[in-house]
Design a protein that fits this description.
Its main location: membrane. With 427 residues, the chain is mainly alpha-helical. The chain has one domain: Growth Hormone, Chain: A. It is 81% helix and 0% strand. The protein is built from 15 helices and no strands. α1 crosses α7 and α7 packs antiparallel against α10. The protein is globular. The chain starts with 11 loop residues before the first helix and ends with a helix. The N terminus is likely disordered.
Length: 427
């Protein structure tokens, strides 16, 4: 029986269902950032302990994502995504009930956040891999751009949503998670028709061997792409945490207004992601140019921000960095998702998701530790973005083996190999 080919046309309902997955995933961090100062006051914790609300969600996700990728390659994407969403929602219930009923809820809230992180491991990166299975060529780039824009939209809306929900009671956001996770799981279950897997399942040894071959052939540019995505999100979430703390401590900005302010650079990133995904199509040379340019746009404003002490100036510069992030991420998504055969796509994409999560996890505590020396903090971050831009320029080799110049190349090879196998079997 012939293998199912990826669909060319984009259908609204499957894409909408998949786009809700990263949107919900990002709510896990961004929705809580505006309420962290209030949480510190309500349960009597330090700034560092508050930052761990973000970290203890992101670190478990980053560690478990590779396993989720393997499971999605071995079985199906939906078998991973749907239970992951339900676990994500359950963690929100644990954290919310602890905040509601316990006098000293911090430890149980952290346990709930760990559960949410474990659930998040099977969400966004697996949704990206599934999009790679469903669509190809320019349709894939467009779909991934929309999914990244959905991720960005979640970042835009979540500070506002978090601030609004906190008007009811500060921990209300935790109870919002199970509702939206169940809705997303239902959408994926009913509207996403996953292509059937063909051929026999690889053993873990064969699977690891295939991954080793992939990284041996393409490791330099893949690792550079991983680093670029991680650093972009590390800087974004770190600066957002920094600005949120300054607005609360120094300027006494109310929760809702703080959420609205934080949404501005995220809106710039979301809009840029949407436009970038629609324009890049299969043009790998353009993707490389946009990645290098985007990293420069992330770094230069940070270097300028080192000489200003006003959070609103920093916010304006962060808008430019948000545009840079919106250029970088859709290009990386398309390159990485198109780089390998379907059989290893889940793992390669999951590793990318893993380092993205770890970047998000590291941002708040590191920026929090450097808050008292903003000039040093911004200078270090600008240097990091600059190093990534240089690495991307030299190590992402467009048009050569390992550069991923033809997004369909690996799928075509896989189809040819399967055809040869069938012919030999008939002979």
């Amino acid at each position: 029986m012939a293998a199912t080919k990826p669909k060319k046309a984009i259908h609204f309902l499957p894409l909408f269902a998949l786009a809700t997955v990263p949107l919900i995933m990002v709510l896990g961090n961004s929705m809580l950032i505006p309420i962290l100062p209030q949480m510190q006051e309500e349960i009597g914790i330090s700034k560092f302990q508050a930052s761990l609300v973000i970290t203890l969600f992101s670190v478990p996700a980053g560690v478990i994502i590779p396993l989720a990728g393997f499971l999605s390659d071995r079985y199906t994407r939906k078998v991973v995504i749907i239970p992951a969403l339900l676990l994500y929602g359950a963690g929100g219930v644990v954290a919310g009930v602890a905040a509601w009923l316990m006098d000293q809820p911090y430890a149980v809230i952290m346990a709930g956040r760990v559960l949410q992180g474990l659930g998040a491991a099977g969400t966004a990166s697996i949704a990206m891999a599934l999009a790679g299975d469903l669509w190809s060529g320019a349709s894939r780039a467009k779909a991934l751009g929309i999914i990244e824009a959905s991720n960005g939209l979640g970042k835009v809306l979540s500070p506002i949503i978090g601030s609004l929900i906190a008007l009811l009671f500060w921990y209300a956001a935790f109870f919002a998670f199970p509702i939206i996770c169940i809705l997303s799981a239902a959408l994926v279950y009913f509207f996403v028709k996953e292509p059937k897997k063909s051929g026999s399942k690889q053993s873990p040894k064969e699977y690891i061997g295939a991954l080793k071959k992939t990284f041996k052939a393409q490791g330099k540019w893949l690792l550079t792409a991983y680093l670029a995505g991680s650093i972009a999100l590390f800087i974004l979430f770190g600066v957002l945490f920094y600005i949120s703390q300054i607005l609360e401590e120094k300027y006494k900005v109310a929760d809702l207004m703080r959420g609205l302010i934080l949404s501005i650079p995220l809106l710039a990133m979301c809009t840029t992601s949407l436009v970038t995904g629609a324009k890049i199509k299969k043009n790998m040379r353009l993707m490389k140019i946009l990645i290098v340019s985007g990293l420069a746009l992330i770094g230069v404003p940070l270097a300028i921000a080192a000489f200003f002490n006003n959070p609103y100036v920093s916010l304006g510069l962060l808008v430019v960095s948000g545009i840079g992030t919106g250029l970088v991420l859709p290009c990386l998504n398309t390159m990485i998702t198109s780089a390998v055969q379907k059989a290893e796509r889940g793992a390669v994409t999951a590793l990318y998701g893993s380092v993205r999560f770890l970047g998000v996890a590291a941002g708040p505590p590191i920026f929090g530790a450097l808050m008292d020396t903003p000039k040093i903090m911004f200078s270090i971050m600008a240097a990091l973005a600059g190093v990534c831009a240089v690495m991307a320029f030299f190590l992402i080799q467009v048009g050569t083996e390992g550069g991923g110049s033809n997004p369909e190349r690996y799928e075509q090879i896989a189809q040819q190999q399967k055809l040869l196998t069938r012919r030999k079997a008939r002979a």
